[in-house]
Input
Amino acid sequence: AWLPPLSWHQCKPAVERCQHCECDTDGRFIQYASRVIANHTARTTSYWSPDQALGPPDAEPCEASTKSWLPDAQNCDNNNACSLVLGFEVAVVPAHLKLWISWNAADGLKHFILHFDDSSMIALPPATAFCDMPYTLSLDTDKRLTK
Output
């Protein structure tokens, strides 16, 4: 008999519909961002818009793909011009968080704030990320992540 590790969650949660969710071959629940809030004026075209950050990754790695979000700013000194808030359909206790960087993040990822369903937040330190592989962060929490 095979039993999943205790830190894994039964795939899929008891939710009627989860558009941006799937299960991997080991029965782990995988969820992609389903909501996006841009803290700045968004582009009016669909190219590089904040909505491109939703769902599974489909952009070409290390290219200025029109299938990915790019900030509409000359530089990112103003954090609001280069930030997104991503939300999920199902609040779950996460084991890992993966971010796909489709373009060179020259200054790295500066601000990570994880929001939980009990209204608490955790600010994580800046990180270096590369466009040819997802940035993976192992999480050790018993709280359900919402955004």
Remarks:
- The longest strand covers residues 35-38.
